[in-house]
Design goal:
The strands form seven sheets. The chain has a six-stranded mixed sheet with strand order 6-5-4-1-7-8, with helices on both faces. The protein has a three-stranded antiparallel sheet with strand order 9-12-13. 41% of the residues are buried. It is elongated and about 80 Å long. It has two domains: 5-171, Creatinase/prolidase N-terminal domain (Creatine Amidinohydrolase, Chain A, domain 1, 3-Layer(aba) Sandwich), CATH 3.40.350; 174-443, Alpha-Beta Complex (Creatine Amidinohydrolase), CATH 3.90.230. Helix content is 38%, strand content 17%. By secondary structure, the chain is an alpha+beta fold. A hairpin with an 8-residue loop joins strand 4 and strand 5 (73-77). Bound molecules: glycine and manganese (II) ion (2 copies). The site of one manganese (II) ion has 5 residues, from loops.
């Protein structure tokens, strides 16, 4: 594992350090979900649960009790079961989670209704992410009610619930050196996948075939799953922001937009590249592409500790509005167009999002009503785009149906920023050269 046991322990300590005295935190594992009848979606552990434990089995509950004499780190998990293990594989069991994951104390999850009320009893505050899982919310209330029912025998139920997410997610926002190394590796694998798709692409190839090239590269590197459903949109499909059908044939003269990133040991990469299906950008495509690339560079230029979250977005808006004005897709005065949000017809999303264990990672974007200030260790995407609707009759025909996004992952460093995904070609000249080389190799 790329994240050490010591680091998981540090994460629990950091959370316990901000918990009020005499409190308890409860974090359930992700539920299993049915895909069809008796088959389930591939299980993925809840990010908060995994962040604190490194434990990937379902049907588990983490309980942190700072200062508890018999151990602060308590895990409920599935018991060993030789019969079930033949079908579903190894289970650590309570002894195993103490040995392998460093739990101080562990119990079979089937006994949780008998044991957890006893752990809650006498604690004043409960840290719990209410509202995420209705079934588990109900269970927590039942445990609290079990104690409330015994107040006349002297039991003290907890009096206060605090939102665990608020504390935990702030910690998750700052990536450690080990986390940054995993994210760099996820970025490198994803970068290779994008190059592979560029090399495979030619007119007549299906969108899903480029997706298959991408997934192959992920899986061959040990990142078996994408961090989100891959988007492969040829031509006007590139204007559909969350296009995942990936079912059309790619046409000569069109661009193709690919937004795909792998998940490596619970860390996401998130890359978008847009390139010509036939390997050569048309003049109109190149003109719009270069605006998006300039917008990304303008956004990059703002990134450093002390800059606020909205600065890269503002820089991208300015560059895109000016670019669209220069090409005649917008008309008017630059500042008025920006104030009125005229660019939103072509650039309808924001510059990016936090990136980490979740592709749209946790962490507040505003603090006390103000945009958050960037600090070393934060990781975000920078992903400007221009999308001209295929039926937009207010612009010249040559622009219609062109969708372009360029997306990279960036870590804020002490003196600026580091791009984790710059191993994918990005200028039109670089892309054309990679594609020309691949085409030559195909016909050799
Ligand atoms: N792939 C999702 C996003 O770019 O936000
Ligand atoms: Mn993104
Ligand atoms: Mn993306």
């Amino acid at each position: 594992m790329r994240i050490s046991k010591a680091e998981f322990a540090r994460r629990r300590k950091a959370l316990m350090a901000v918990m009020e005295p005499n409190s308890i935190a409860i974090v359930p594992s992700a539920p299993e979900r049915t895909r069809s009848r008796d088959t389930e979606y591939l299980y993925r552990q809840d990010s908060d649960f995994y962040y604190l434990t490194g434990f990937s089995e379902p049907e588990a509950v983490l309980v942190l009790i700072p200062g508890r004499e018999h151990g602060e780190f308590v895990l409920f998990c599935r018991d060993r079961d030789p019969e079930r293990e033949i079908w579903d594989g190894y289970r650590a069991g309570p002894d195993g989670v103490c040995r392998e994951y460093g739990a101080d104390d562990a119990f079979p999850v089937d006994d949780i209704d008998d044991i957890l009320p006893g752990l809650l009893e006498g604690r004043e505050r409960v840290y719990y992410a209410m509202g995420k899982d209705a079934g588990f919310d109900r269970q927590v209330m039942e445990w609290v009610n079990t104690i409330r029912a015994k107040v006349r025998s002297g039991a003290t139920p907890p009096g206060e619930f605090l939102d665990l997410a608020h504390f935990l997610h702030d910690n998750r926002l700052y990536k450690s050196a080990a986390e940054l190394r995993v994210m760099q590796e996820a970025g490198d694998i994803s970068a290779r996948a994008h190059v592979r798709a560029m090399e495979y692409c030619q007119p007549g190839v299906m969108e899903y075939q480029l997706e298959a090239e991408i997934l192959h590269e992920f899986a061959m590197a040990g990142a078996r799953h994408p961090a989100y459903s891959s988007i492969v949109g040829g031509g006007k499909n590139g204007c559909i922001l969350h296009y995942v059908e990936n079912s059309a044939a790619l046409k000569d003269g069109d661009l193709v937009l690919i937004d795909a990133g792998c998940e490596l040991e619970y860390y996401a990469a998130d890359i978008t590249r847009t390139f010509p299906v036939n390997g050569r950008f048309s003049e109109a495509q190149k003109a719009l592409y270069d605006i998006v690339l300039d917008a990304q560079n303008a956004a990059f230029a703002t990134l450093k500790p002390g800059a606020h979250w909205n600065e890269p977005h503002e820089a991208s808006v300015k560059t895109i509005t000016q670019g669209l004005l220069d090409l005649g897709l917008l008309e008017g005065e630059i500042n008025t167009l920006i104030d009125e949000g005229a660019y939103r017809r072509f650039y309808m999303h924001r510059i990016g999002h936090w990136l980490g264990m979740d592709v749209h990672d946790v962490g507040d974007y505003k603090v006390g009503g103000e945009w958050r200030v960037l600090e070393p260790g934060m990781v975000m995407t920078v992903e400007p785009g221009i999308y001209v609707a295929p039926d937009d009759e207010t612009v010249a025909k040559k622009w219609r149906g062109i969708g372009i996004r360029i997306e990279d992952d960036v870590a804020i460093t002490k003196d600026g920023y580091q791009v984790l995904t710059d191993a994918v070609p990005k200028t039109t000249a670089e892309i054309e050269s990679v594609m020309a080389r691949a085409a030559a190799a195909r016909s050799a």
